[in-house]
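User: Response regulator. Structure?
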Amino acid sequence: MNTTPLKLLLVDDQDLIRESLHIVLDMDPDIHVVGLAENGHIALKQCEEQQPDVVLMDIHMPVMDGVEATRQIKATWPQIRVIILTTFQEISYVVDALGAGAEGYLLKAIHPKDLAAGIKWVHQGGTLIPQDIARMLVQQARGAADNTSQGAGVKALEEQVRADTYGLSEREVQVLHCIADGLNNREIAEKLFLSEGTVKNYISSIYSKMDVRDRVQASKKAHEEGML
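Assistant: Predicted structure:
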């Protein structure tokens, strides 16, 4: 596994939230907070100076909001991964954030350990979209199909909604993607920052929910039903 901590930039206009996240996340040996910003304009300067791997971005901020900041970051530094962290769950914000190029969208009520795991997951190339938000977005975004800038985000969300047909948790969907990629239990554990025992439990649950016997069947069924 990579022993170099990922570089994280925290962007939030509330001092308490910004500093609290700094303290909590910097305690994780795999995460190094390289900068703090109270608005999107400062975030852009920090990205230029610090070149973070991941940006944790609030939406509603003065001077420049998180959606516009995300759009400019992805245009200038496409390798930087962006996770939107907000208290707002309205559909329009989700669409805007994903349309701007964000790889994930999480609510601030998330447990710190789950947040840290989510940051690492996105850094590894994954995406994070809560399934309740995914369901709402797919229902409402279908009516806006003419807006092609939303196409990729909507497609990704539709995949997650299909996964929800079997009652798969977000973590189980991540494990299923790894199975489809041909990873073994040890490799899945390393990629998702889990123990091998936990991975085995997730796989057993996936088999049961999808009514399959092995990895080949699980992968085939997931592909056939558009879950991957």
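The chain has a mean pLDDT of 82. The beta strands are 6-11, 31-37, 54-57, 81-86, 104-107.
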